[in-house]
Amino acid sequence: MLFDSCPTYELGYRYTDEGRILKTRGPPVPRSPQDCEALSADREADGRMPVPWDVMRVLHDSPLVEWAGNGDILLSTRTIGLVLSQVPSPASEQGPLR
Questions:
Q1: Where would I find the H helices in the chain?
Q2: Nearest-CA neighbor of 63 among 85, 79, 51?
Q3: Interacting residues of 21 by C-beta distance below 8 A, sequence separation 6+
Q4: How far apart, in Å, do the first and last CA atoms of the chain sit?
């Protein structure tokens, strides 16, 4: 897997029987983005919404993958959980094709 905007954070992974995305190769991730403008978005003052850097940290920390209902997936580590939702496409909002 490669984050195209920041190739220095490339990682290899595999999906385990326990339901984790296990990092198998790649550099350690520093506490904050040091050389990638695409990941350096400012955090909101209340700190409740994740920023792109949070997602990168979760992927490098071998998260547990769980079904969260309604087509959502929860990626979680010991310190953070991220819910991934699929945004419906305009075609799916119109109903099935006939």
A1: 52-60, 90-93
A2: 79
A3: 13, 14, 15, 59, 62, 63, 65, 75
A4: 36
Q: Where are the domains of the chain?
A: 7-93
Q: Tokens at residue 82, please?
A: 């991220």
Rg (C-alpha) for the chain, rounded Å, is: 16
Question: Residue 65 and residue 62: Cα distance in Å, rounded?
Answer: 9
CA-wise closest residue to 56 among 72, 73, 78, 80 = 80
Residue with tokens 């309604």: 70
CB of 50 closer than 8 Å to CB of 75: no
pLDDT at 1 (0 to 100): 47
Whether the Cβ atoms of residue 30 and residue 72 lie closer than 8 Å to each other: no
Query: pLDDT below 50 — which residues of the chain?
Result: 1-2, 95-98
DSSP code at position 79:
S
